[in-house]
Design a protein that fits this description.
- It is a single chain.
- This protein is an alpha/beta fold.
- It is globular.
- Strands 3-4-2-1-5-6-11-10-7-8-9 form an eleven-stranded mixed sheet, with helices on both faces.
- The chain has ten helices and eleven strands.
- α7 links the parallel β8 and β9.
- α3 packs parallel to α4 and α8 crosses α10.
Length: 288
């Protein structure tokens, strides 16, 4: 499928610049519509989380600070949006326009960002979110997880530093899992249009139940002439190996099924998807 409608949650100018850039690169491939959405925190939502022993004045002060900081961040983020549209000469419209190329619109909501994204994200072909950054509260890991687990839509995880291209050379992280199959299916149009496709084939002590050559044979029916890049790896290092070998072959985008292992196991012991969410330096398309 092509991604004609794309939701892009933006939290702040500092945390969202790369996300906007990567979303625009994808949108230009299909003359897509980008809805740039900023969610302001609702101070009233903090009341159930305030500690015991706080009096009314303390709670009111916390709410006032949240309201003020949220308002300032909203103004700054809207200014970033306006500057971005002007820099790239984008057509601002909330309705489809014939022959307009990429269009963009602004949406502002109030509430919890993860809850808003989880709901509205179900309306779009793709959601572009920023990758997690160590010791930084934004982009929010909760929002990323909500986009991935609660929308039923694929997500593109943008690295902290935007890459020069996205989708010219796509690497597929082959795991022979249902999640991998779904992600390949939703990204098939991107694979068809890519200049190069490489299947990353981890050679594990326990072989995968479906060989990468079988995937390559199926992709040929779509006109995709994929190459196989095989490598030896231990089961605990697969996530890091996917990133390493995507860089080795020169890919500018990674396609991977999300959480093909138990999500709880990944949270406790670490895992492939978790490692990629924390470390990817190229745009990564994920689906469940």
């Amino acid at each position: 499928m092509s991604f004609k409608t794309i939701l892009v949650p933006v939290s702040s100018p500092e945390a969202s610049a790369s996300t906007l850039t990567m979303a625009l690169q994808v949108a230009r491939r299909w003359n897509s519509h980008l809805e740039i959405m900023h969610v302001r925190a609702d101070p009233r939502g903090l009341v159930p989380y305030t500690g015991e022993g706080m009096d009314g004045s303390m709670i009111e002060e916390i709410m006032d600070v949240t309201e003020r900081e949220g308002g300032e961040r909203a103004v700054q983020t809207r200014a970033m949006f306006d500057a971005f549209c002007k820099e790239h000469d984008l057509t601002v419209s909330d309705k489809p326009l014939a022959d307009a190329g990429v269009t963009v619109s602004w949406r502002e909501e109030t509430g919890r960002e993860d809850e808003v994204v989880a709901l509205r994200g179900r309306l779009y072909d793709l959601i572009v979110v920023g990758r997690l950054v160590a010791d930084a509260p934004l982009p929010s890991p909760i929002t990323l997880e909500a986009a991935l687990h609660d929308t039923g839509r694929p997500i593109l995880v943008a690295p902290p530093v935007a890459t020069a291209s996205c989708g010219s050379h796509i690497a597929i992280a082959w795991e022979a899992s249902p999640e991998a199959a779904r992600t390949i299916a939703v990204s098939i149009q991107a694979l068809v249009e890519a200049e190069q496709v490489t299947v990353l084939d981890p050679k594990l002590p326990q072989p995968l139940p479906l060989a990468s050559a079988d995937l390559v044979d199926r992709l040929r029916w779509h006109g995709v002439d994929a190459k196989i890049h095989a490598f030896d790896v231990s089961p605990t290092e697969v996530g890091a190996a996917f990133l390493k070998h995507a860089a080795t072959v020169g890919a500018d985008m990674l396609v991977k099924g999300a959480y093909s292992q138990s999500r709880l196991r990944q949270m406790v012991l670490g895992g492939r998807t978790r490692h990629i969410l924390n470390n990817a330096t190229i745009p990564t398309l994920l689906a469940k």
